[in-house]
Amino acid sequence: MADQVIDSSVLNVHDLKRLVQARFSPEPAAGPSLSVMSFGYRHGVPPQADLVLDVRFLPNPYFVPELKGLTGKNPKVAAYVLEREETQQFLDKVVDLCRFLFPRYQKEGKAYLTVALGCTGGKHRSVAIAAELTKRLQEEIPRIQLWDRDIEKE
């Protein structure tokens, strides 16, 4: 049997969600989370992505013999991807976009924002870019998580 009544007749869905979370959550709502995901287009676009960004415009470490067998988590591959001016410009723009969107998603009551970064196989470029994006945003967005979806796939 209910022991609390909420008059929702004057609340929109987002205000109602905030009120219910505030009253019934064991701890105050921690706010939305940002998921940064790397993936390979070869394995399909992640259906849960809110934003999908293609990094296949960057040179591919796969075609560098000493980097081919490594992943974007390796410092040599990361340096190869990140040292380029166009990579830094791209990252600056994506960071700005996330800074713009994240508070607006929060205001609308969304629990998460998922940014998916894709390259051909999901092992090199997207992994390095996703890690760097996470690093750049983790100070201001405390609930950020990194997921390399296809890093182990062939």
Report what the structure shows.
The protein has five helices and four strands. With 154 residues, the protein is α/β, with parallel strands linked by helices. Helix 3 packs across helix 5 (125-137). It is elongated and about 65 Å long. The protein has a four-stranded parallel sheet. It has one domain. The termini are far apart. It holds the Pfam family PapZ_C. InterPro entries: RapZ-like (IPR005337), RapZ_C (IPR053931). This is ATP-binding protein. Keywords: ATP-binding, Nucleotide-binding.
Shape label = elongated
Output the number of helix runs.
5
Series of H and E elements: HEEHHHEHE
Number of domains: 1
Helicity range of the residues? 25-40%
Beta-strand content estimate: 15-25%
Biggest beta sheet summary: 4 strands, parallel
Structural class: alpha/beta
Distance between the termini: 54 Å
GO molecular function, one term: ATP binding
Domain RapZ C-terminal: 33-152
Organism: Stigmatella aurantiaca (strain DW4/3-1)
Pfam families: PapZ_C
Would you kindly provide a brief summary of this structure?
The protein has helices at 13-24, 65-68, 75-82, 85-107, 125-137; strands spanning 33-40, 51-54, 112-119, 144-148. With 154 residues, the chain is of the alpha/beta class.
Structure keywords:
5 helices, single chain, RapZ-like, alpha/beta, 154 residues, nucleotide-binding
Topology:
Blueprint (H helix, E strand, L loop, with lengths): L12 H12 L8 E8 L10 E4 L10 H4 L6 H8 L2 H23 L4 E8 L5 H13 L6 E5 L6
Parallel strand pairs: 1-3, 1-4, 2-3
Helix pairs in contact: 3-5, 4-5
